Amino acid sequence: MDSNILQRASGFFAVYALYYFIISGLTTFFSARWQNPTLALTSMLGIWMVWTVFLPNILMSSVEKWHPLPSRNEFKAAMKEDRSKGIDGHNPTDERANALVESVLAEYGVDSLSQLPINFDGIRMQADEEYGNQVWDKHFGNIREVLGQQKRSLQLGGIINPFISLDNTSKGFSATDNLHHQEFLVEVENYRRVFIKVLNDEHAYGGSKNGDWGWKADNEFYKSVEDFAHKPTELSAVFSHYIPDIAILLFWSFLTLGLLYFGTKRIQLL
Question: Which tops the pLDDT comparison, 39 or 250?
Answer without folding.
Answer: 250
